[in-house]
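Predict the holo structure. Ligand: s-citryldethia Coenzyme A.
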Amino acid sequence: MSGNSFTVRDPKSGREFDLGVRSAVLGPDVIDIRNLFSQHDLFTYDPGYGSTASCESKITYIDGSKGVLMYRGYPVEQLAEKSTFIEVAYLLLYGELPSGDQLKDFDRSIRTHTMINETMLRLFNGFHYDAHPMAMVAGVVGSMSAFYHDTTDIHDPRHRDIFAHRIIAKLPTIAAAAYKHTVGQPFTYPRNELTYCENLLNMFFAVPPEPYQVDPVAAQALDLLFILHADHEQNCSTSTVRMAGSSGANPYSAIAAGIAALWGPAHGGANEAVLRMLEQIGSVDNIPKYVAKAKDKDDPFRLMGFGHRVYKNYDPRATIIRETCHRVLERMGGNQPLFELALRLEEIALKDEYFVEKKLYPNVDFYSGIIYRALGIPKSMFTVMFAIARTVGWVAHWREMITDPEGRIGRPRQLYTGPDRRDYPPLDKR
Ligand code: SDX
């Protein structure tokens, strides 16, 4: 690569040609291959997109080798210590931290859009009580495109803002309705005087027969978890939202697609899988057996909450969540044995050559479930909590994609290795 071009030699013709290089503010520069097929009849090949930049973005930067994560240039450690989830949501959506007035207006807009259409509430009666909450939330969020027709012009900035505030405000209400449906309790309406996380906890745990007092430590721990889960560059679910939105689909449907992608155990579903894994391991004595299973190529068992496509160092979010576990468990109690088991598992794994050589460290999902459980949130709701926070990142990326002057419908190509042309044989000739 020289200057701002990259020279390639066509393997078939032997001809050499240059490709443009575009410079990044941080991280790797990119080779611009947009005209590779039209001008040189060549595709690139990158299953899983490990070396492919799908877009230009100004939202989040990750340096996987150094364990760096920044939202709009601000280190996530500083935001975790000094900011709130609502302020971080404003930052991710609009690109700058808000002034006092801007924050007050944004917070008021979110607080006054938390109710959902009463007919939407009745959708939950269509699910069995034991339906997985992620299935219910994905379905009900998808149904929002059937309820909200007044923000259908995705090229109208005002419509984009109404959509953003609505979906961020209503996700906790939909999540709480799903939870109440699984426990057979009446739905608790949102209350505008509560903060975002206080409101969520109240909708989860308040019951008609008695008043419910939100524990400020619980609300603060939830706010921190939501900051840490808010965005993460072009991860699987965010890329799904961008892809679905690139066709001009209703934005609520694009978010529902993101929720579906997040559910997988290789992605956001890992936080639930980690708790199930820790309960399966049961005691410190069993750790060596399960670490051996994780290393065995013939065993499908993986150490859930370990490894990451981008981080080949500590996931900075995991470090912050582990430290928060201490504070929350001291206050809320419970889970200590599970937390001790997780700490020992991390210690043993990170001394094992397999994990060291493959650079497999704890990721955001390894400790988060310990806190959710200490807050009284059941395992089946862990990925729903992830979806509530990541809705902010999904919406921020959807807006960036919709307003990208270079934006086009996503349509990757392929390396075809199927049968060459052949004629249809009559039945008696097969
Ligand atoms: C999230 O992308 C994001 O940013 C996601 C996320 C976000 O905020 O959006 O950070 C959230 O999804 C975190 C990841 C949660 N998933 C898990 O914890 C599930 C367990 N982890 C793995 O399934 C895996 O590490 C992935 C899916 C996270 C990453 O998979 P990659 O990048 O495709 O890596 P890989 O599967 O190619 O693994 C590389 C090697 C393999 O061995 P070899 O084939 O090279 O011999 O490491 C091994 C894998 O077998 N490996 C593991 C392992 N993770 C990878 N072995 C045992 N246990 C593991 N957890």
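The chain has two domains: 5-53, 74-405. Residues 7 and 18 are 4 Å apart (CA to CA).
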